[in-house]
Amino acid sequence: MPVTFWGFVSPAGHVLESAIVDDDDDDLRIAFDFDGVLADDESETVMHNTNDVNQFHEHETKNVLQPHNPGPLKEFLVKISDIQKLEEKRRNLILTIKIA
Q1: Are 15 and 23 in contact, with CB atoms under 8 Å apart?
Q2: Helix (H, G, I), strand (E, B) or coil at 54
Q3: Per-residue pLDDT tens for 56-92?
Q4: pLDDT digit string (tens) for 28-41?
Q5: What phi, psi does 86 have (nearest 5°)?
Q6: 36's torsion region: left (phi>0), alpha (psi -120 to 50) or beta?
Q7: pLDDT the model gives residue 55
Q8: Distance between CA atoms of 28 and 3, rounded to whole angstroms?
Q9: Residue 39's CB: how many other CB atoms inside 10 A?
Q10: 24 vs 46: CA distance, rounded Å
């Protein structure tokens, strides 16, 4: 479903073609936008409301030590991280068994 953002219409998700051929690698790679996805869109909202990059930078500088609030996909990323950790343990277990 298209999303309107700063006057542009963008897909909610898009798979990009790649010229890289990586037949030996079957890893799944996922990229996320940060503002408004993994973290809240407070900073992005400042830019959107003021349309002034200087106010955006001022807001960022003022809040540099303030952690971002979680965005809507933060928990999804946490679950993916949990899966990665389990997969890494499984890989190590298989390697250990093969070496033994």
Answers
A1: no
A2: helix
A3: 999 999 999 999 899 888 888 889 889 888 888 877 7
A4: 777 778 888 888 88
A5: -65, -40
A6: left
A7: 92
A8: 25
A9: 20
A10: 44
Strand intervals (E) in 1-96? 2-5, 8-11
Q: Do the Cβ atoms of 12 and 36 come closer than 8 Å?
A: no
Please state, in angstroms and rounded to a whole number, the distance separating the CA atoms of residues 3 and 9. Answer: 5
Tokens coding 91: 């890989």
This prediction's pTM: 0.54
- In single-letter form, the type of residue at position 23 comes to D
Could you give the count of Cα atoms lying within 13 Å of 81 in the half-sphere of its Cβ?
Answer: 6
Query: Which amino acid belongs to residue 52?
Result: D
- The total number of residues written for the chain in this structure: 100
